[in-house]
């Protein structure tokens, strides 16, 4: 099986497990993650943190984002620009949130674009070495590559439920490893 086919199979399997979680279990796990990382993620006032509004059965990190904002972080959310590109727009209190593609929502075109210092990255699967499988479109890999080409090296924190961990992710040359992962069991650095 090719790495691409293996990733597709792992993605399908782990997303099915995530989808099978009862909504109340997902909510409790999401809130537990705030306790694990809300005060542990290293940031200075003014650091820019990219998050995401949950889609489908993703972890709801909005309470974590609120905690990080209370600690002085500036927040931004990804916005899909076309079939290959996302940008990160600043999330300001009271600013409107609009549909931004791929089932996502985020700040509108009037919001400033920012380069995140810390990226909270959604994923479908991850392993104990920090390799991740995204949703298959490569948006985050390309966005991270673009930031790195500008000399910007954001800290990458994968966000997932424990059921999304796999024994091994077949890493390919274009894949970007995570610095840490946050699940309901805790915050792990790689």
UniProtKB/TrEMBL annotation:
Keywords: ATP-binding, Ligase, Magnesium, Metal-binding, Nucleotide-binding
Matching InterPro entries: FTHF_cligase, FTHF_cligase-like_sf, NagB/RpiA_transferase-like
EC assignment: 6.3.3.2
GO MF term set: 5-formyltetrahydrofolate cyclo-ligase activity; ATP binding; metal ion binding
One BP annotation, GO: tetrahydrofolate interconversion
Domain of life: Bacteria
Residues that coordinate or bind substrate: 58
Gene3D superfamilies noted in UniProt: NagB/RpiA/CoA transferase-like (3.40.50.10420)
Transmembrane segments annotated in the record for this chain: none
Residues holding ATP: 7-11, 132-140
Residues making up the signal peptide according to the UniProt record: none
Family named by the database record: Belongs to the 5-formyltetrahydrofolate cyclo-ligase family.
Name used for this protein in its record: 5-formyltetrahydrofolate cyclo-ligase
Native species: Ensifer oleiphilus
Higher taxonomy: Bacteria, Pseudomonadati, Pseudomonadota, Alphaproteobacteria, Hyphomicrobiales
């Amino acid at each position: 099986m090719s790495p691409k086919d293996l990733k597709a199979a792992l993605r399908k399997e782990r997303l099915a497990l995530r989808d099978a979680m009862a909504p109340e279990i997902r909510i409790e796990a999401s809130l537990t993650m705030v306790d694990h990382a809300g005060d542990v993620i290293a940031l200075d006032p003014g650091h820019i943190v990219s998050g995401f509004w949950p889609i489908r059965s993703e972890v709801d990190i909005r309470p974590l984002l609120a905690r990080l904002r209370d600690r002085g972080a500036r927040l931004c959310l990804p916005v899909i620009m076309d079939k290959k590109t996302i940008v990160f727009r600043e999330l300001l209190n009271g600013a409107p949130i609009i549909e931004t593609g791929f089932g996502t929502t985020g700040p509108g075109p009037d919001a400033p674009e920012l380069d995140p210092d810390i990226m909270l990255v959604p994923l479908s699967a991850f392993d104990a070495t920090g390799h991740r499988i995204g949703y298959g479109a490569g948006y985050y890999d390309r966005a991270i590559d673009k930031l790195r080409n500008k000399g910007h090296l954001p800290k990458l924190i994968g966000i997932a439920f424990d059921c999304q961990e796999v024994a091994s992710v077949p890493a390919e040359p274009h894949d970007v490893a995570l610095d840490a992962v946050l699940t309901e069991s805790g915050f792990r650095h790689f």
